[in-house]
Design goal:
The chain is an alpha/beta fold. Helices cover 40% and strands 12% of the residues. It has a single domain, classed as TIM Barrel (Alpha-Beta Barrel), CATH 3.20.20.210. The chain has twelve helices and nine strands. A seven-stranded parallel β-sheet has the order 1-4-5-6-7-8-9. A two-stranded antiparallel sheet has the order 2-3. Strand 8, helix 11 (308-322) and strand 9 (328-332) form a beta-alpha-beta unit. The longest helix has 24 residues, at 168-191.
C-alpha cells in the first residue's frame, strides 16, 4: 500500500492535485560535511555506505522530504569500465585521472556491465534503501544518458566529437554498449524496489554547445528513448536537463527548451536550472500538459549562499507562479552544493509546509 508521500508524489507526477506540493533535494550526500562520518570515495565501492549516508541525511532534516533521489558517484559506470579518478579530502568533484576511450578503436573495449557483478554495490544501495524506507517514500535511482557517459565519463569531448564526424560507426558501437548497460542496471534497480529513474542529460557541459539537433537526435535522443522505453513501467521517470551557469544550456544553444523539443522524451516529469534559463511558468505552459514540473529553487545563489528567509521566499514565489492545476514538485535546478547550509535545506521543507497547499484544490 502506498504511503502518504507516495500518493502525494504520484499525484503530482500524474498531473493531479495532491494534498500538498511535494518537495525533494538531492546532492552528493556522503560528501556533506554536516554528516561527518561518511566517505564519498567509500560510497563509490560500498552500497551500504551509500545507503546509510542517504538515511543519515534524511534523519538530519527537520521536515520530511517527499522523494529520495539516490546519488552515487556520477561517473560510477566509467569507474567500472576502467576510468580512474582521484578522491581527495571528501570533495564532491574527484579529479579525472584517466579515461578508457582514448582512440577510436577503444569504443569496442567497452563491454556491457553486469548489475549483479560490476554494478552490484549500487544496486545493493537501492535494495537496502527500499527495505529501510521504501514503504514510506518513493526512491529514484540515477542514470546518465549514454551520450553524457560517452562525452564526459569514459572518453573526452574531443575524442567523441571527432568520432561522431569521422568514425560514427565506432561511436555507435560504444553507445550501444552503454545503452544496454543502462537498461540492465535500470531493470535491476526497479526489481530491487526503486520507484523510478532520475535520467540526466547534458552532464554539466560539452553537449548543448557542441551538437546540433540532428546530432542530438542521432546520438542522444535515439539511445535515450531506447533506455527510457525499456524502463517505461517505472511509475516516475524524471528527466533532468543539466547545464552550467553562464556557459551553455539547451535554450541558449539550440532553442531546445522553449521549442518543446523535450516533449519527445517518454518521461512524466522534467527538471532543469530554471533560474538560468526558461522560467518555471514558461515551461509550465510548454510542458505542463505532458510533464510534471520539478524545480523552483536556485541551488547556487540562493540555496548555497542565501539566508533561510530568501530560500522560503523563492519557494513561495515558485508555488505562486506555477501551482495551478497540480503537476508541480519543488526542487533545485541541479545537485545542491556540498557546502550548502543545513538550515537552507530545512527552509525548503518549512516553506512547502507553509505555502504548499494548491490554490486550485477544492
Amino acid at each position: 500500500m502506498y504511503s502518504e508521500r507516495h500518493q502525494r508524489v504520484l499525484a503530482a507526477v500524474n498531473l493531479e492535485v495532491p494534498d500538498r506540493i511535494p518537495w525533494s533535494l538531492w546532492g552528493h550526500i556522503p560528501a556533506l560535511p554536516f554528516l561527518k562520518y561518511y566517505s564519498w570515495e567509500k560510497a563509490n565501492r560500498d552500497g551500504e555506505e551509500l545507503a546509510k549516508a542517504h538515511v543519515a541525511f534524511l534523519n538530519e532534516l527537520d521536515y520530511k522530504m517527499d522523494l529520495l533521489k539516490v546519488t552515487p558517484f556520477y561517473k560510477f559506470m566509467a569507474y567500472h569500465w576502467g576510468c580512474k579518478f582521484r578522491f581527495i579530502n571528501n570533495e564532491e568533484t574527484p579529479e579525472s585521472v584517466d579515461v578508457i576511450v582514448k582512440k577510436t578503436e577503444d569504443w569496442k573495449r567497452l563491454s556491457v556491465l553486469d548489475p549483479r557483478r560490476e554494478l552490484k554495490e549500487y544496486v545493493r544501495a537501492i535494495s537496502i534503501l527500499s527495505r529501510e524506507i521504501g514503504r514510506t517514500m518513493p526512491i529514484l535511482f540515477t542514470l546518465p544518458s549514454p551520450l553524457v557517459i560517452a562525452v564526459n565519463h569514459v572518453s573526452t569531448p574531443e575524442r567523441t566529437y571527432a568520432d561522431m564526424r569521422a568514425q560514427p560507426d565506432a561511436l555507435r558501437q560504444g553507445l550501444e554498449t552503454i545503452a544496454q548497460t543502462c537498461i540492465d542496471y535500470g531493470r535491476a534497480c526497479l526489481d530491487e524496489g526503486a520507484t523510478g529513474v532520475f535520467y540526466g542529460l547534458g552532464g554539466g557541459g560539452n553537449i548543448w554547445s557542441k551538437t546540433n539537433r540532428n546530432q542530438l537526435e542521432e546520438y542522444g535522443l535515439r539511445y535515450d528513448k531506447r533506455v527510457l522505453e525499456a524502463l517505461r513501467d517505472a511509475p516516475i521517470r524524471l528527466l533532468h536537463i543539466c547545464s552550467k551557469k553562464n556557459q551553455e544550456d539547451p535554450e541558449r544553444n539550440g532553442g531546445l527548451m522553449e521549442s518543446g523539443w523535450f516533449r519527445k522524451y517518454p518521461v512524466n516529469a522534467i527538471n532543469w536550472w530554471d533560474a538560468t534559463f526558461t522560467p518555471l511558468q514558461v515551461a509550465k505552459r510548454i510542458y505542463g500538459q505532458q510533464f510534471c514540473i520539478v524545480g523552483g529553487i536556485d541551488q547556487e545563489s540562493v540555496m548555497r549562499t542565501g539566508r533561510p528567509e530568501q530560500v522560503e521566499s523563492q519557494v513561495k514565489t515558485a508555488i505562486e507562479k506555477t501551482d495551478q492545476g497540480g503537476g508541480l514538485i519543488i526542487g533545485a535546478g541541479c545537485t545542491f552544493f556540498q557546502d550548502t547550509p543545513l538550515e537552507n535545506i530545512n527552509a525548503v521543507g518549512r516553506a512547502v509546509e507553509k505555502y504548499g497547499r494548491h490554490t486550485s484544490r477544492p
